[in-house]
Amino acid sequence: MADNAENVNPNMVVRFERTPQTRFFMCRSCKNHLLSLQNQLFRDQGLHAIICQNAVNVSVEHEDSSWTFNHHPVLRTPLPTRAIQEGRILLYLDKMLYWDGNQVVYADTLQPAED
Description:
Elements: E1 24-27, E2 33-36, E3 40-44, E4 49-53, E5 59-60, E6 66-69, E7 72-76, E8 88-92, E9 96-99, E10 104-106
Antiparallel strand pairs: 1-2, 1-9, 3-4, 4-8, 5-6, 6-7, 9-10
């Protein structure tokens, strides 16, 4: 994913507040907000990913399960399973950052991220 956040219409982007009470995931490349922690259904340790619903600032461009933000792929879903169903998506932790209520950390390691 290239860093093309400047091409995004800021009036169309959902943003979560960075407060001690909020927890959310962001794109590691463009820093755009993707998902509130309350919409995480569960974590798949084998895939190093989370299964979730109601992601924001992503769109489906094709029915081949490729998801993009600003024309850059941000996540892919495998064939449908019990966990991956219509309305649910798979987000890879190594592609995201996480606001933990105090600071931004890498979603896969929980180590502080550089600004």
